[in-house]
Amino acid sequence: MHTDQPDYSPSYKRFVLVMLTIVYAFNFIDRQILVILQEPIKADMGLSDTQLGLLSGFSFALIYVTAGIPIAYWADRGNRRNIVSISLAVWSGMTAVSGFAQNYAQLLAARIGVGLGEAGGSPPSHSMISDYFPPEQRGRALSFYSTGIYVGILFGFMFGGMIAEAFGWRAAFLIVGIPGVLLAVMLRLTVQEPLRGRWETAADNAATKPTLKETLALLRGLPSFWLIAFGCSLMAFVSYGVGNFFPSFLIRSHGFSVAQVGMVLALVAGVGGAVGTYLGGYFGDRFGARDPRWYLWVPMIGSLVAFAPYLYVLLTDNVLHLLVILAVTNILTAMYLGPCIALSHALVPPNMRAFTSAILFFVLNMIGLGLGPFLTGLTSDLLAPRFGTDSLRYAMVIASCFGLVAIGLFYFGARQLPADLEKRRRSAETFSVV
Length: 434
Known about the structure:
This protein is mostly helical. The chain contains 20 helices and no strands. The chain has one domain: MFS general substrate transporter like domains (Growth Hormone, Chain: A), CATH 1.20.1250. The radius of gyration is 21 Å and the shape is globular.
């Protein structure tokens, strides 16, 4: 720990955390606005579910994760605040440009631009938060930051649906994208770049510029990291594969309008997901102080309890039951991200954290965001000749079953975690002796 460096005031650290969380919310507003607009875009451009899945999933994820790795490598060396600010301006500007698309190819290109910008958002922010907050507070801090996902979903669904019904889907992209550019300027002027490795030992901070090869070599020797990463990716597979089509499901199978879907999912998915994300970090920090395996046991237990009710949500025709149970299952299934990011950072030195987050998000988004919506949409198209409008319902049921595999990966990750944390401790001690 750098005891000779003054710490920031608690109020300023809370301000920075809120600012970064708002930026992350804009990340998901700009990403999820497409989800609420899928049905009018599909009708306007004559698209299939497979094309929708490619638009909201694979094409976006491919550029997002590919660009994320070199940007994170840059963030482990450069000014992370500036990287986040520039990235925010880029993805918000490209969201606004999406409103001018005249065909599928143009809209696809604009969404690729959004993915390129968003690649520079989370890994540098994760690294900054870990330098603002000490280890015993990181689970909560990173989980608070991760609530930005659901704040973004809430506002994206709510305002996207209302704007689309009032002014059309093109206006929704324009109105949502422009404020992000202004927020990028505010972030640049008000947030300070924290001291890298503020809470770590001299040994942790001695090596200032690890190479890509060194970082990957370290991660290859940590089986728990890969179990965590693939567990997260399959949780995201369910979240994106089912969640990206939930507005379409409510419209097709339950007769909702676009505005009704926006309001309902803003409250049920947005609020429930935000509560669950924060609770995951809270319980992880509380119980993980005694045994770090709780950082994986908390999301494992939550997901296991939610599995059967989640299937009921997709299969029932009772809308009231669907919405009430969905609110509860969204809380339980959202508990994984904050604790898993915190554990990933605990397994590596501070100068590898942004890159480690990028690797985690590469696996998570390539499998979860890239394949989840695409395969769900493809399955829906394949089942359509037999099940008609219910084909999407059964495609979502199939996608949700991948959550069971995620639960198993978290279980085995928890078993491996103590040995990998011991490796981390010994490597730091060895380095300090050398």
